[in-house]
Design brief:
The complex is a heterodimer of chains A (181) and B (118). Chain A is 71% helix and 0% strand. Chain A is mainly alpha-helical. The radius of gyration of chain A is 22 Å and the shape is extended. The termini of chain A are far apart. Chain B has 118 residues and is an all-alpha fold. Chain B has one domain. In chain B, helix 1 packs antiparallel against helix 2 and helix 2 (38-59) packs across helix 3. The termini of chain B are far apart. The chains are: A mainly alpha (181), B mainly alpha (118). At the A-B interface, helix 1, helix 3, helix 4, helix 5 and helix 6 of A face helix 1, helix 2, helix 3 and helix 4 of B.
């Protein structure tokens, strides 16, 4: 069976979104992969911006579109709270309050689309968690097997004095930067 | 199988397939010269195919691209439902983080101690 262009568009967009997100998670926290965010946005645009998605993808696109308001509010709120809370730097009350307001708004949007909580729904959640865990466990076992078949590399040499100073300066710069006036 | 049981089994099989797809995308997005992705990629692809095959036992029909797409969509919808649960937990963690005071950073103290000793 040939996949329709619209279905291919949804899945290509989703794949770009997933790959972009994974790319964005690579590298140190203060310098993410530069292509990650643009690839995510491109994927989202390809996935969501077309007139009529085919079945069964239409269900997914509809659910994703319905979830956009609360997920966007939640993402903004969580980022603001993490910036304003005393985690990486001193407390910033205004940012913290705005972040909490966004989280409240996310709850408001989310409760509007929350499915009715039935026993079947709760068991489905449990089944989904088990299914995801199964896939992760199988993947972890395959990685373990691959690693056991990979010849060990010799131990790396210790850092030189110059490298040690460089690592120290990077850590200091990025751990202390937020406290500086 | 009853429709309720069908829903639960489809959520299990679909989320296993969808999580496997996410793993494949994560492997592709983080590919580097030290990766040996051949076996893990093959294994997670097999999870997608086998879970679709098992789902077909209750749906009926042929094993084709449409069946895989339907299984993946079922999984995506199931995982999307889990976001409600995840956000509830995250809200509790966020509230706790915003109320506590900033902990001392042992790494900064260690770096300062090293700098002083030089």
């Amino acid at each position: 069976m040939v996949v329709s262009l619209a279905a291919a568009q949804v899945w290509a967009g989703f794949c770009l979104f997933g790959i972009g997100f994974a790319m964005h998670r690579t590298g140190p926290a203060f310098k993410r992969h530069p292509a990650g965010a643009p690839v995510v946005l491109l994927g989202l645009a390809i996935m969501l911006l077309h007139s009529e998605p085919p079945s069964p993808e239409s269900l997914l696109v509809q659910a994703a579109t319905d979830a956009v308001p609360w997920i966007v509010s939640a993402a903004i709120g969580i980022n603001l709270v993490l910036s304003g809370a005393p985690i990486y730097s001193n407390r910033k009350p205004l940012i913290l309050l705005v972040g909490l307001a966004f989280i409240l708004a996310a709850w408001y949007f989310m409760l509007g689309i929350l499915p009715e909580l039935t026993l079947t729904e709760i068991l489905s959640w449990l089944a989904s968690i088990l299914g995801a865990l199964l896939a992760i466990a199988v993947f972890a076992q395959s990685v373990r097997y691959t690693e056991s078949k990979t010849p060990a590399e010799p131990e790396s040499t210790p850092l030189s004095e110059k490298e040690r100073k460089y690592v120290q300066s990077v850590l200091k710069r990025h751990l202390e930067a937020s406290d500086e006036p | 199988m009853s429709p309720e049981m069908d829903t639960i089994v489809n959520a299990f099989l679909g989320s296993a397939a969808f999580t496997s797809l996410l793993i494949i995308l994560a492997l592709l997005g983080t590919l580097n010269p030290y990766h040996r992705p051949a076996i893990p990629l093959t294994v997670v692809t097999m999870v997608i195919v086998i879970s679709t095959y098992l789902a077909l036992i209750s749906w009926g029909g042929d094993m084709d691209i449409l069946a895989i797409r339907s299984n993946l969509v079922n999984g995506a919808l199931s995982i999307l439902d889990l976001l409600y649960l995840a956000f509830s937990v995250l809200t509790a963690l966020i509230l706790r983080a915003s109320l506590r005071s900033r902990p001392d950073d042992p790494l900064i103290a260690l770096l300062e101690a090293e700098s002083d000793s030089e």
